[in-house]
Amino acid sequence: STIPARQMQDMVNLAAESKFDEEEEPSFSDPEDFVDDIDDEELLDYVLRERPLEADGIDSVVMVGPERLKKLKNVIHKIFSKFGKITNEFYAEVAGTTKGYVFLEYVSPNQALEAVKNADGYKLDKQHTFRLNLFTDFDKYMNISNPWETPEKQQFKDFGNMRHWLEDPDCRDQYSVIYESGERTAIFSNDPKEPILVEERARWTETYWGIALWAGEKFKQIQRFSHQVTHVNNTLTMFVRYVVTFSPLMDTKEDSQAIIIWDILTGQKKRGFHCERFRWSQDGKFFARMTQDTLSIYETPSMGLLDKKSLKISGIKDFSWSPGDNIIAFWVPEDKDIPARVTLMQFPSRLEIRVRNLFNVVDCKLHWQRQGDYLCVKVDRTPRGTQGVVTNFEIFRMREKQVPVDVVEMKESIIAFAWEPNGSKFAVLHGESPRINASFYHVKSNGKIDLIKMFDKQQANSIFWSPQGQFLVLAGLRSMNGALAFVDTSDCTIMYIAEHYMASDVEWDPTGRYVVTSVSWWSHKVDNAYWLWTFQGRLLQKNNKDRFCQLLWRPCPPTLLGQEQIKAIKKDLKKYSKIFEQKDRLSQSKASKELVDKRRLMMEEYSRYKDSAIQLYNQQRELRLELRGGVDTDELDSNVEDWEEETIEFFISEEIIPLRDLE
């Protein structure tokens, strides 16, 4: 039989490899007298073809003839007058045509800087784009030193396992606690019996110079940023790359320092902005900021303006990124005869995928479902011919063709609205105290929205869904004295009603098994503590902390399991439940054994102390007799024969009562 050519080649290669392994490794070094006669052109031809070439700039100049020069000047003056008053304009001309550049002089340097920041990259039309520089830039770029200094090689820093807590055999989540009015911070592992202290420090970060990032098993400092911050946020992608700090104290017109984006790995400032509305996309590839009549989209890692131009949206009031896609929802109020509108725009294409016109609008609020499957626009309206405000919930079905919209109307005032994080239900608190109602709706796939259940007369002003859905807590925080209702929305039943007096905050753990209610010192100066509950409303712990301020759960990264694996686990849940129940019983018996062992050790320690004290007492007997003149006072009945009996009488009082007073 014949051997196929490919198989024969594999056999030859295998034989060659075997022979090579048996022989001594060959040397690939050049001999000492070797002369390299290959030039760069031959060796790196494909690279050198792309190198920049020296030019006189003629190809970069746009020539404008005299017949269009006047029009061009008017356009340029109109565009750049937006940034300040122009005192001087100089167009370089040759024979009635421009040389392609112009010098503009403003009243102040700040106005010139603003023009450069906002108009650099401005597209005049499809073929022409403005490039701007300050006049002082010419000196700066002309005086660049020619010798290039090789940057110092930085040593690799090993911060250890950043996700070590995920390897806990008992799958305990962690949370941080700030107390003593912010002076102390502690990290705990959550346990139903009692919290397990992981790390505790006083004045963990010196806030006068900025913030610091801590990570690893021992919580070592991995980075710090010099910014007197009042708020911190970060891009929650699969791997966090940037952190955003906010401090209006640092901001000036000349230098944008209110909002700063930092690179976590290097600690370098990537870009700064003024006090403006600022939000990240769900994957961290884009971020957006809103100024008057403008929405600007920036891309990472360059931090540059997307397509080098902003969106001009007259009257824009608010915007929000989808948590599931790179889609922005924004709304614009009514303007004379032009209705208000909600627009959904996709990026980076800038494609408008849906526009919804709205009439008689007072205000709008944008509420995304956590997976981006639905968008609810809460629209407060004043219908013509009626008094008062009516609320419409405009529900956008984001995963369906052409994004259909359903409407739920409510005539009562709205207190709170919240989507189920990973489902198609939403909850609404509406009405006036003491008649506050809680309504639960289900967005069905057939294009209908059904009211599942309504609970009346609820003491609640906030809705807190479990991160896993199905369960929620209706809470009456602060002024409502901490009333709590634990609800199962699968059958819309109230599992338990409780109270944590003057509770100010509610925090679910990432698994949805536990929930914490707390009274923060920042909002109430007494009874500061946090309580741990099960999702069913069973109270597990009451943890009092002096001037307790805040509790935050440590976020968990997305699961590495696929949908099929998750389905398989749910299918075999009963099998796993038996294993977990057995483990719980062992844990309880282990806890009992630990308690008995602890008490036994305490008893043994007491017995050792008692024996040593008796031994010392006996050793000092002779010394006591000497000090007390030979009298033994160790026993109460010692030296009875030397006792003397003496009777002492004391006159207490005398009272004389006449007999007539008794008649």
Structural class: alpha+beta
Mean pLDDT comes to: 83
Distance between the termini: 149 Å
Global morphology: extended
Helix content: 10-25%
List segments where confidence is low: pLDDT < 50 over at least 5 consecutive residues: 1-23, 53-65, 235-239
- What is the tally of helical segments? 9
The percentage of residues in β strands lies in: 25-35%
Descriptive notes:
There is one protein chain. With 663 residues, this protein is α+β, with helices and mostly antiparallel strands. It contains nine helices and 37 strands. The radius of gyration is 39 Å and the shape is extended. Strands 12, 13, 14, 15 and 16 form a five-stranded antiparallel beta sheet that branches. A four-stranded antiparallel beta sheet has the order 5-4-3-37, with no helix packed on it.
What descriptors fit this protein?
663 residues, alpha+beta, 5-stranded antiparallel sheet, 9 helices, 37 strands, extended, Eukaryotic translation initiation factor 3 subunit B, initiation factor
